[in-house]
Design goal:
This protein is α+β, with helices and mostly antiparallel strands. The protein is about 30% helix and about 35% strand. It has one domain: Aminopeptidase (3-Layer(aba) Sandwich). Strand 3 and strand 4 form a beta hairpin.
Length: about 170
Amino acid sequence: MTPELTIRPATVDDWSHIFPFWSRIVASGQSYAYPTDLDSDGARALWMEQAPGRTVVAVDGSRVVGTAKMGPNRPGRGAHIATASFMVDPDCGLRGVGLALGEEMVAWARARGYAGIQFNAVVETNQRAVGLWRSLGFEIIGTVPGAFMHPQHGPVGLHVMFLPLD
């Protein structure tokens, strides 16, 4: 992580900086199953979390270079387990943005007393993400075969990854 990189809560004004790389990442079809035809308003409704969740941005100087959303994995009886999603601007040219966002999310979940963190759908061909989450202690606890239609590889698995916090 560069010394200039800060992570802070996302504001309404940040969306205009998030959406350009958010939409490029979704359109690439490599890592998210979101609809590729979402406009800015539809994407914002999916990404910008409301309490008890939160959305953060990673900022290098004044440039938004990444974002993460986090909150309870399920409502009610599943709310003791957190979940999150992450995006890093492919053009940011920085190393460590994803790691910094991941560390922030884990610290946030611990501070709020979550028992663990579950990632529901990590595309198995996204080795950078799989490696990053493993480096933070997450384990693959299952894989749903063929659950993601990858544009180059066809149907690939979605990993469920878990980090116990208790």
